[in-house]
Amino acid sequence: KSVTYDKQRNDTILKVEFHSQFWQYYNQRCNEYSFQFDGQECTQPAPIVNSLHKYSSSNSHTIAPPGEVSGFCNATSRGPLRSGPLSITVHITNPCSSGGQSYTGKGSTGKVTSYILVEEYCP
Q1: What is the per-residue pLDDT across 55-79, written as a single tens digit (0 to 9) for each?
Q2: For the chain, what is the total number of helices (H) and then of strands (E)?
Q3: b/e per residue, 53-72, with b = 16+ CB within 10 A?
């Protein structure tokens, strides 16, 4: 999931939120869901990350809880977030290297709404 946001000013901080349903299939044991800004994780004030862990002895066990990732960002490793178009992406990683499949917004009815909310705040 991604969105392009037109940041208005150089001296503002962004608040970002992602709301969806997080799915883990088969032997997937953990996932991290994080925001990236033009392909880079936030560094200031901190990375914006949420994780989902599953403990099951069954490889066919599936979980699908509602999920949220939210936080503030004003800089990445490339420096401060500047005004202008900014690609904001929710990135899914598997830090446990456990295989399986992970999705967001994939409901059994196909009608799960996912969205990214971006707000710009003056310091």
Answers
A1: 665 555 666 666 778 999 999 999 9
A2: 0, 10
A3: ebeeeeeeeeebeebebebe
